[in-house]
Design brief:
Layout (H helix, E strand, L loop, with lengths): L15 H20 L10 H4 L6 H39 L7
Length: about 100
């Protein structure tokens, strides 16, 4: 029930036994969920899933380099686009519009 259960409901009396039972149920569920996390079968050998070689740090470096510099490249492209758009707008404003009568 969690977030939706609050003591302002008229149909449910929140006495001490009810609160203790809710806490115990949550504690039992949490311990049951965590019991499998500490078993020997749940441990993972990272070398089984990822073959680490001498070139792995370079792959990580290139990946992170792209992640760091891509926002800067996007910022430069957007600034360039905005500058071109503003210069075209100024050029359109400087040309007097001919009125056709």
């Amino acid at each position: 029930m969690g977030f939706a259960a609050h003591p302002l409901r008229a149909n449910k009396q929140l006495d001490g036994n009810f609160m203790i039972n809710r806490i115990l149920i949550k504690l039992i569920l949490a311990l049951a969920g965590l019991s499998g996390a500490f078993s020997a079968e749940a441990s993972v050998d990272s070398y089984r899933f990822l073959h680490v070689t001498i070139s792995t740090p370079w792959y990580l470096f290139i990946f992170l380099l792209g992640g760091v510099f891509s926002p800067f490249i996007l910022m430069a492209v957007l600034a360039w686009y905005s500058a071109i758009r503003k210069s075209n707008r100024k050029a359109d404003d400087s040309v007097p519009k001919s009125s056709v009568e």
